[in-house]
Amino acid sequence: MPVTGMPERCLSLPPRLRPLLREAHRYFTSYTVEAPPREAVENTVSLVGSPTRLWLVGDVVCSNFLNHGYKPWACIVDLRSERHALPPGLRRLFLTSFGLVIEVENPPGMLCNEALEAVKRLAVQGPGLLMVKGEEDLLGLAVLLEAPIGSYLVYGIPPRRGIAIIPVNHENRAKARSLVELFEEANR
Predict the structure, then answer these.
(1) Which of these, 5, 4, 9, lies nearest to 110 by C-alpha position?
(2) What is the enclosing helix (H) or strand (E) of 40?
(3) Does the predicted TM-score (pTM) go above 0.70?
């Protein structure tokens, strides 16, 4: 049964940081994989050693891993890809792949406390699915802040340029913390 809640305190991504976060895979120490989906999935698992170390952000990347038989520690999705709704079958795939399902609100361009707390919960109680009403894009920062050291953040590089694999380590955690400190209080 999904756990639901309402957003409370949110931080807003300032416009000056948008170009940097569009190329976050260049800002953080990371790997990129440019290959067809099956090959990208297999290369990623080969690199990290186990899919249970993976925190996937984005519907397409999550569905690719699940469809190729790899269950990550966490999938963070919003049931949209590039602002378009996804087929209903993907929702079913996501829901049937995880016992723990958490639902949160996180408006576009924001990082809300409720979503950050849900990522913390996944770190302890996962594996699981975090379904976001709004937008999940910035939750990669939450993963870098809250996932265990030794985990990996994985997301698609738009538009269809491959996937980014960012190790959750002390250096990337510090960079994520520095970025989030530049966010602005949102008026909600």
Answers:
(1) 9
(2) helix 37-48
(3) yes
